[in-house]
């Protein structure tokens, strides 16, 4: 298998150092990591420019260019969280791009509907869920265009989910990748992390010494003293560079050592997160519906006014009440997969009566016990007027 994490350091003399007032290069360890980099997931390369982008903006290399230490730091920032893992019950709420986006939409809309006078408990629920939504997310905020990349450790697998569908202001796709996911075992992922660290610091050993021998081989760097902000000690630029290199290496390998020992535990209570998700979903529906209703799929209209209702004799409504069906009983139904012009969840609602699945539909829908015979129009609930807007 090809390496997942890939980079190519610029030669030391080509790194983008700033120039001091004395006219000398400010040779900093950070800028010595200047590189082109990409992440290889099977046949997909993340952080690779799209063909359209390369045609519009020709470059010697199609991969993103930035000091690689930034991505390495961001990866190791979330590595303890990845190592600790995520529960299967919590993961099911965010396992696809669509499910993640929908939950984010629910959380944001719930917080907006709650309004300005939120309680401390509501604030905590909101912050907990936002933190959960970005669990295992690699920070790419320093890049101009969106690139979401999540690492989920579920059981003995690591699932890498990505969304690189961003476009520029002219509608041009930025990245060659779109969205999808890639799976490897935890053992394989840990090997990739250790392999990355070994390669990177072997290369940086050479990069630092190259800078010392070829770029700092004069009296200016030997005599220029730098102050350690932690200890207050002064040392020349060459020794300071070597010292930072040693400390950086020790820092990253200390994290890796803890990961290999299994020292990291989840920083999220996933059972509580599941409860919070269920709570905000019910609370949101209570605020955007006129009354508790039963969830249906309006794509399952089998006649103009007949829709599939339930495979069992009971079904929970939007408030969590268990409803037992009987022939001819009034039922209120809704579908929550509709969005308004503001990208908010906008429920379609209808009222009707429960009936047994008619004999003529038994062959196709024998697994469905109950249907709803819709009475009148179905549409959207408008809490301002308390009237239904026709949407048929």
Number of strand segments: 20
The number of helical segments is 10
Please estimate the helix content.
25-40%
Beta-strand level of the residues, as a percent range?
25-35%
Overall pLDDT confidence: 92
Characterize the main sheet. 7 strands, mixed
Radius of gyration: 28 Å
- The 3D shape can be described as elongated
Give the structure's gist in a few sentences.
By secondary structure, the chain is an alpha+beta fold.
Task: Describe what this molecule looks like in 3D.
The structure is a single chain. With 392 residues, the protein is of the alpha+beta class. The chain has ten helices and 20 strands. Helix 4 (97-114) runs antiparallel to helix 5 (120-133) and helix 4 packs across helix 9.
Note the topology.
Blueprint: E1 5-9, E2 18-19, E3 25-26, E4 34-41, E5 44-46, H1 51-56, E6 64-67, H2 68-84, H3 88-91, H4 97-114, H5 120-133, E7 148-154, E8 157-163, E9 179-185, H6 186-214, H7 219-223, E10 225-227, E11 234-236, H8 237-261, H9 270-288, E12 294-295, E13 301-303, E14 306-310, E15 314-316, E16 322-324, E17 330-335, E18 348-356, H10 362-365, E19 370-382, E20 387-390
Parallel strand pairs: 12-17
Antiparallel strand pairs: 1-4, 2-3, 4-5, 4-6, 7-8, 8-9, 10-11, 13-14, 14-19, 15-16, 17-18, 18-19, 19-20
Helix pairs in contact: 2-8, 4-5, 4-9, 6-8
């Amino acid at each position: 298998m090809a390496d997942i994490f890939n980079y190519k350091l610029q030669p030391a003399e080509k790194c983008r150092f700033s120039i001091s007032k004395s006219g000398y290069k400010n040779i900093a360890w950070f800028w010595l990591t200047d590189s082109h980099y990409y992440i290889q997931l099977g046949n997909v390369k993340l952080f690779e420019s799209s063909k359209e982008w390369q045609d519009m903006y020709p470059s010697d290399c199609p991969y993103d260019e930035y000091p690689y230490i930034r991505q390495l730091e961001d990866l190791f920032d979330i590595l303890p969280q990845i190592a600790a893992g995520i529960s299967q019950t919590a993961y099911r709420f965010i396992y696809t791009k669509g499910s993640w986006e929908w939950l984010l939409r629910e959380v944001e809309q719930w917080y907006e509907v709650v309004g300005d006078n939120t309680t401390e408990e509501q604030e905590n629920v909101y912050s907990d869920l936002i933190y959960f939504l970005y669990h295992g997310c690699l920070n790419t905020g320093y890049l101009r265009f969106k690139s979401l990349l999540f690492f989920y450790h579920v059981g003995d697998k690591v699932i890498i989910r990505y969304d690189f569908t961003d476009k520029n202001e002219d509608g041009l796709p930025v990245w060659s990748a779109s969205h999808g996911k890639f799976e490897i075992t935890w053992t394989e992922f840990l090997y990739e992390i250790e392999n990355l660290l070994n390669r990177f610091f072997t290369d940086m050993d050479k990069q630092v010494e190259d800078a010392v021998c070829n770029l700092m081989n004069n009296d200016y760097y030997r005599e220029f003293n730098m102050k350690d902000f932690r200890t207050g000690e002064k040392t020349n630029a060459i020794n300071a560079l070597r010292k930072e290199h040693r400390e950086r290496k020790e820092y990253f390998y200390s994290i890796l050592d803890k990961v290999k020992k299994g020292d990291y535990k989840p920083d999220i209570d996933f059972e509580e997160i599941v409860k919070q998700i269920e709570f905000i979903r019910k609370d949101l529906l209570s605020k955007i519906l006129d009354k508790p209703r039963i969830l249906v799929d309006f794509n399952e209209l089998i006649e103009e006014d007949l829709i599939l209702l339930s495979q069992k004799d009971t079904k929970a409504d939007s408030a969590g009440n268990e409803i037992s069906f009987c022939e001819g009983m009034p039922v209120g139904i809704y579908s929550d997969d509709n969005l308004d012009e503001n990208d908010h969840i906008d429920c379609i609602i209808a009222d009707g009566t429960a009936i047994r699945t008619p004999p003529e539909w038994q062959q196709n829908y024998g697994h469905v016990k109950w249907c709803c015979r819709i009475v009148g129009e179905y549409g959207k609930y408008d809490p301002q007027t308390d009237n239904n807007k026709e949407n048929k």
